[in-house]
Amino acid sequence: MGCTSSKKINVQPLILQPRPTTITKHIKLLMSGDTNVGKTCLVTHHFKGTFENNHYTTIGLDFMIQDYELDGDTYKLQIWDTAGQERFRTLTNTFYRHCVGVFIVFDVTCRKSFERIIYWIEEVYRNTFGHIPIIIIGNKIDLDRQVSYDEAQMFASQHHCSYFETSAKNNIGLKEAIDKMMKFVLKKVQ
Ligand SMILES: Nc1nc2c(ncn2[C@@H]2O[C@H](COP(=O)(O)OP(=O)(O)OP(=O)(O)O)[C@@H](O)[C@H]2O)c(=O)[nH]1
Ligand SMILES: [Mg+2]
Question: Rounded to whole angstroms, how far apart are CA atoms 96 and 104?
Answer without folding.
Answer: 13
